[in-house]
Design a protein that fits this description.
By secondary structure, the chain is an all-alpha fold. The protein has helices spanning 7-13, 34-39, 59-74, 80-93, 101-115, 120-132, 144-149, 152-173, 184-204, 214-234, 240-256. It has 3 domains: 2-74 and 160-173, no CATH class; 80-156; 184-256, no CATH class.
Length: 257
């Protein structure tokens, strides 16, 4: 199937730095909120990004829908009739030991149970591999576990591919609800609080306590607020448009003061 995937879609499916389980919180811009994630005990030491959002109605969306449907068909379990037919065909080349009818029924029941979660084409592939294996032990009919071992890895890959395609489609159909941007008043409050913290730390460490005149305090709060706006924009908590709006509000407010 991977040969049929578009390059852009294949690059997403092969990416292990995407938060496929949607465990990580998001910022107002849709980026990973690393501060909140760290407070929740999530790993923030490695690169991680949210599931990309494919635009509804786009060519990429239509390609995603088609790929998801194909992936779904490729993990569908084979029917009992298909499994029975493949085992019967294999028994022509690799005869079973002599058994009575009751034993054959038990063997067939167990084989159908053990192979029941595998797609038809993978069972065909497992039987063909066994039939063409030059190992003399393959002259005899295999246990289901022998067949499963040769295709379990490919089934895991298919299921992972299908899961990731489903996640991409789910996010495209219903993008995550993002939190509201951090208000400017909250950022200013953080700046004022940081000044108070700096004063307390200076007292505790017996260092000179910074003192500000009313005018100097206003300038200091503005400078720290602007620095925090820049940091929030850099960490993708604020869009460039909102960050610019906040800066303009700060300039207007400071000018009025």
């Amino acid at each position: 199937m991977t040969r049929l995937l578009k390059h852009w879609l294949k690059s997403y499916l092969n990416a292990n730095d995407i938060d496929w389980s949607c465990r990580y919180p998001l910022t107002a811009t849709g980026a990973i909120d690393r501060r909140k994630a760290e407070s929740q005990g999530l790993n923030t030491t490695t690169s991680i990004r949210p599931i990309p959002t494919i635009r509804l109605g786009s060519d990429e969306y239509r390609e995603l829908v088609a790929a998801t449907e194909l992936a779904r068909r490729m993990v569908e379990p084979a029917s009992d009739e298909h499994i029975g037919f493949e085992l019967k065909r294999l028994s022509v080349w690799c005869p079973m030991p002599s058994r009575d009818v009751r034993d054959y029924k038990l063997m067939l029941h167990d084989a159908l149970t053990d192979l029941g979660g595998f797609p038809h084409d993978l069972i065909q592939k497992a039987c063909a591999r066994y039939r063409n294996d030059p190992d003399p032990r393959c002259d005899f009919f295999p246990r289901p576990g022998r067949l499963k071992a040769s295709i379990e890895g490919e089934l895991r890959e298919r299921k992972q591919r299908f899961y990731r395609l489903e996640r991409l489609l789910a996010i495209a159909n219903e993008p995550p609800k993002l939190p509201a941007p951090i208000p400017l008043t909250e950022i200013e409050a953080e700046a004022k609080h940081q000044i108070d913290v700096d004063k307390m730390l200076a007292q505790l460490t017996h260092k000179p306590v910074p003192e500000f005149s009313p005018e100097a305090l206003v300038i200091e709060i503005k400078a720290r607020t602007l620095a925090k706006i820049e940091a929030y924009e850099r960490d993708k908590h604020l869009t460039p448009e909102i960050a610019t709006s906040y800066r303009n509000q700060m300039e207007a407010s400071h000018g009025q003061g």
